Amino acid sequence: MQEEQVKLLGLWFSPFVRRVEWALKFKGIEYEYVEEDLTNKSSLLLTSNPVHKKVPVLLHNGNPIVESLVIIEYIDENWKQNPILPQDPHERAKARFWANFIEQKITEAMRTALVTQGEQQEKVVKELKEAMEVLEGEAAAKLNDKTLFFGGKNGLGYVDIVLGWICNWVEVIEEVGGFKVLDPQKQPHIHKWMANFVEVPLIKPTLLPKEKMVVCFQMVRQAHLGLAAKK
């Protein structure tokens, strides 16, 4: 049997890339990681993702798959060991719902809050806090001393992998953007989940140093604010 070739095009500080790495590691899949320079995009990236020209891109035997949530589902469908999504159709549908909620209401909003200021940022932060309260409600209903993760009795699952970026990135983005979203008093179940998530042996070595990330995201914020000021 021909050996499978798995390659991941990524960027070291991208939470979207890190999700895919977690999924690959969770499945025990060996892969080659290729760091991209988004100021000088490689021909491989441009041909593999001609629509968005962004990372992550997973290349499986030369075939490209793009968008982190799509990639995670592809990984789960192609490699059957250690299922990421629930096997039950209803539970799988619920996991997809919450993954989409996280992506639309939290991930995208956090990215917007990072690169805006004034009234626009205030509006987005208000919406972010409301979304976090909704997620806290789901965490309160789902998690307990015996069920530490959204994946239930099987441990880490789809929602955990999609949400996991908040453990490493939110504090950095809050500091750089000058706002606060996460509050242990208002979201105790989410904070308990975060504490458990970062201690998972698969996750812990992949967490990034805060100081290095702060410098990087300061550059991202200033670049976007500079562009906005020129319009």
Automatic annotation (TrEMBL):
Query: In which domain of life is the source organism classified?
Result: Eukaryota
Q: Name one GO cellular component term.
A: cytoplasm
- Domain spans labelled GST N-terminal: 4-83
Q: Which UniProt keywords apply?
A: Coiled coil, Transferase
In the Enzyme Commission scheme, what number(s) does this protein have? 2.5.1.18
CDD domains given in the database record: GST_C_Tau (cd03185), GST_N_Tau (cd03058)
Q: Which residues form the GST C-terminal domain?
A: 88-217
Q: Which GO terms describe its biological process?
A: glutathione metabolic process
**Coiled coil ranges:** 118-145
Query: Which molecular-function annotations from GO does this UniProt entry contain?
Result: glutathione transferase activity
Reaction catalysis annotation: RX + glutathione = an S-substituted glutathione + a halide anion + H(+)
InterPro entries, alphabetically? Glutathione-S-Trfase_C-like, Glutathione-S-Trfase_C_sf, Glutathione_S-Trfase, Glutathione_S-Trfase_N, GST_C, GST_C_Tau, Omega/Tau-like, Thioredoxin-like_sf
Which protein family is named in the record?
A: Belongs to the GST superfamily.
Q: What is this protein called?
A: glutathione transferase
Q: According to the entry, what is the taxonomic lineage of the organism?
A: Eukaryota, Viridiplantae, Streptophyta, Embryophyta, Tracheophyta
